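Hi R.,

Here are the chain sequences for the assembly we discussed:
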Amino acid sequence: MMMRIVFAALMFALPVRAEVAIQSVTSPGGITAWLVEEHSLPFTALEIRFKGGTSLDAPGKRGATNLMTGLIEEGAGDLDAQGFAEARDSLAASYSFSPGQDSIGVSARFLTDNRDQAVALLRQALTKPRFDADAVERVRGQVLSGLASDAKDPGAIAGLAFDAAAFGDHPYGSSGNGTIASVTALTREDVVAAWKGALTRDRVYVAAVGDITPETLGRIIDDLLGDLPATGVPLPEPATYGLTGGTTVIDFPTLQAVIMFGHDGIARDDPDFFPAYVLNEVLGGGRFTARLMTEVREKRGLTYGISTGLYPLDHGALYLGQLSSDNAKVAEAVSIIRAEWAKMAAGGITPAELDTTKTYLTGSYPLRFDGNGPIADILVGMQMQGLPIDYSQTRNARIEAVTLADVARVAKRILKPDALRFVIVGQPDGLQSTN
Amino acid sequence: MRVSMVALALWGAAVAAPALSETVSDFTLPNGLEVVVIEDHRAPVVVQMIWYKTGSADEAPGHSGIAHFLEHLMFKGTPTTGPGEFSATVEAQGGNDNAFTSFDYTAYFQRVAADRLDLMMKLEADRMRNLILTDEVVNPERQVILEERSQRIDSDPGSLLQEQAAAAQYLNHPYGTPVIGWRHEMEQLSRKDALDHYSKFYAPNNAVLVVAGDVTPDAVRKMAEAHYGPLKPSEGIVPRIRPQEPPQLAERRLTMADPRVSQPVLIRTYLAPERNSGDQKQAAALEYLAALLGGSGTTSVFARALQFETQIAVYSSAFYDGTTIDPTTFGLVVVPVPGKTLDEAEAAMDGTIAKFLKDGVDESAFARIKTQLMASDIYARDNTDGLARRYGAALSVGLSIKDVQDWPQILQDVTPDDVMAAAHLVLNRNKAVTSRLTQPEEATQ
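And here is the predicted structure of the full complex:
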């Protein structure tokens, strides 16, 4: 069995090919994990993800999942917050808990020599969090502090305004961190309910990369996850995109405005996803050769950076872009973005753009697999998207299969110049809100 | 007890994997280019980094930002590579490239499949001596760096305050001038300014090449000789002896009010010694001091006193980066909880510092940090790019490969007494700048 990440030369156009030796490990208790054994360094990166995330918040309890996630490490079992941190640091292990819209991520890193102790400690956090009253108040204070910062951050204001207009009352329409009012009103019982509803066995995904065997991994995941509730609260309904084209200006006193723009997007399992991915790379991929970067930054100096991205969420999809631009230049930047959007929708991309983009995307893909942590992150993401275990070996072929006609067709389908909404936080010269 | 057992176990782990020094080799070309090769054969990927031993602290007075502006302009072409073609070529190979500028160095890197290293060296060597700049490419790029300043600094009151604080900290030394530059000087930067900086500082005898990944030293040497070898060294490279700070005789304090501030912040920075070749012990002790005082939001001295016991702060931390040429800063940050004033936060912070200076180091906290530093050496080896940066930055500020490789052991040899000696040396308000970020008074009423 191959024990390392192995790449093999394939052909000239594909400098390296991702041949990651991924094993599927099913624990005695029936939980599946993907594993890459990599024994040259004496540690393991473990990624656990629970589908659902902050979108599981009960009505009126916005921010409960986020607060709960912030409290997971603040005391567990016999240990209070400080005792837990001391135990973790003594082992030189690290755990991080990250709440997302569609999932909660648990990333752990631990040394081979004290692996059992590190896993036992993480188990305490996942299965026996204390949610002590003083810890709840302290972390609530940190969350409220972050919300106060967001209220004066033009980027956060733009994102929230776009989401609210796009998705209304659906969880996607508000911040998973909650509001000052909702977070202030949360009780310890709300936090406990969020924990019981979100960290459950029916929606857990696991990947590990490092100095660990399949047998040990199986034992560990049973140990970590076996005692969690079998099922969680229902996932949210599909989110309906409700925003029309136009401009929204939110007055904010600053030299440089933050602009968020976009419209509805395309689902990850849509058959047109790969042509759309290539299309986006040409239009607004963050690279210097992308059309928007060339037109808005390189030729005219209107911004330090502009990029667009497909956001295929579990219950809805967006196609979004963002840039910052001095107030005097915003109107010009907006008109160029509109023009490029329309041009791409009408004409697609050129043969040269298709060639260079394919070469870039296929050549850079293996470079992502650069370390135990990043590989574990990719593997758990693949599982959550429902991709097959050999996906990393077929992914580049899917990019290669995209044709000019595919991109032109998909450009017409997903780019909607008239539906483009610009949310501008700042004081842009010569621009007002429309409808 | 558990702590010492863990430490022993870790030593075992450190022995089980090959020592890092075994995978690092170096040589110097006849034209003065230093080359460092870090081998990591786990994946057929390589990163090439070229580090120029010049940064914003080496700029001509009145031309702040030129080092960073030149970094942007380095992508604008040579007689054989058109504007933008550098990045396009890297991307066409499936690679990524970028660059960054600091006070003491300017670095450029590409990450590609290992069999593309030769082409990357050809491109990088070409622009070391053959850059061409026209007003056509310089003028829009000046707008880009002004937008970058707007985004990174002017849109963020905290960044503006740090800029002011650094200017107050360094009365005489160029670390008081921001890397990105003062706006009024950036607006005046010209094509000639960029070329002057370029011709003065960009030469093989003022650079370090770091190649890390699936390569052998012999192969790197052959390629480096072919591409960088023919480049002529510059005769104008002189040691970087910069104006030093006069003795600080008075505490410096500043307050900045900005309506965009959501909550007040207190920042204190002390002038502090940096790592020096063959003399890194004090810097190592300061690493511990930062970790002890503010390295953890749960168990550090500040977190315990200010966030747990008195609950006067919602956030606290300490920071120190000793990889610089000239004296650096040791910093402390406290964000008070709503309802507590900056006066109260500062009094609590000073009380905590005074108590720490009197009580000394908590032995178990010290042992935990020591264990974590040892383990970080293992974790760091999973990140080849990070290792390349570690060597590149250190060599760019006058440290040697031996200094880099000695550093982990120097950290392990630090004692609590060393930490307290460093603390007594550095934590002196009369050598500090205390900065406050607040909302305008009308807004707080």
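The first helix of chain A runs from residue 64 to 71. The longest strand of chain A covers residues 317-326.

Let me know if anything looks off.

Best,
T.
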